[in-house]
């Protein structure tokens, strides 16, 4: 499949450690994830309604915290599998099917998420390498949104 080169993958995996290492993760994943969703809803206010079930109206509720950590945990697994593209594709196919059953989730929302991540990550990752990240993140988000409507 069209994933990033192993050189790009190595950079991204190494830089992701700054966000996801065990001592950083408990806070950065939650606060970073919150920032991502806040920005996403600013850019696409209509998307908020998709998350009613996980109590999006109470942005710091246990339910929405749980949702954020499922998403960030998912992203963590994907990034760490960038160099094993067969397993990566299997993970992406599973996530794609989990999103396909949620009415209203579109490809466009995933494109927006890519933009939000590319805008936010430089704030928490030192020496952020935009090319490597774009090369790796875009195929991941495309893979997860495969089969969704535009
Ligand atoms: C980095 C990108 C993303 C990752 C890794 C990700 C991952 C996940 C995971 C792991 C779940 C929980 C699945 C389950 O337990 O059933 C989930 C649920 C969900 N995701 Fe995503 N997601 C991402 C982006 C998005 C985007 C861009 C949207 C649309 C705006 C979206 C919409 C949803 C919805 C509506 C749910 C169900 C929430 C609920 O439990 O009611 N996701 N996502």
From TrEMBL:
Domain Globin span(s) in chain numbering: 3-149
Keyword set, alphabetical order: Disulfide bond, Heme, Iron, Metal-binding, Oxygen transport, Signal, Transport
Positions contributing to heme b binding: 99
One cellular component (GO) term of this entry: hemoglobin complex
One term of GO molecular function: heme binding
Family in the record: Belongs to the globin family.
Name of this protein: Extracellular globin
Stored Pfam families: Globin
Disulfide bonds: 4-136
PROSITE patterns given in the database record: GLOBIN (PS01033)
């Amino acid at each position: 499949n069209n994933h990033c080169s192993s050189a790009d993958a190595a950079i991204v995996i190494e830089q992701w450690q700054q966000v996801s290492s065990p001592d950083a993760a408990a806070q950065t994943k939650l606060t970073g994830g919150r920032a991502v969703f806040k920005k996403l809803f600013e850019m696409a206010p209509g998307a908020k309604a998709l998350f009613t079930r996980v109590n999006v109206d109470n942005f710091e509720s246990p339910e929405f915290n749980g949702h954020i950590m499922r998403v960030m945990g998912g992203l963590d697994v994907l990034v760490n599998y960038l160099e094993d593209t067969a397993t990566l594709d299997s993970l992406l196919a599973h996530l794609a099917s989990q999103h396909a059953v949620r009415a209203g989730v579109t490809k466009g929302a995933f494109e927006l998420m890519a933009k939000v991540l590319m805008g936010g990550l430089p704030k928490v990752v030192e020496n952020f390498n935009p090319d490597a990240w774009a090369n790796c993140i875009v195929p991941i988000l495309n893979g997860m949104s495969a089969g969704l409507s535009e």
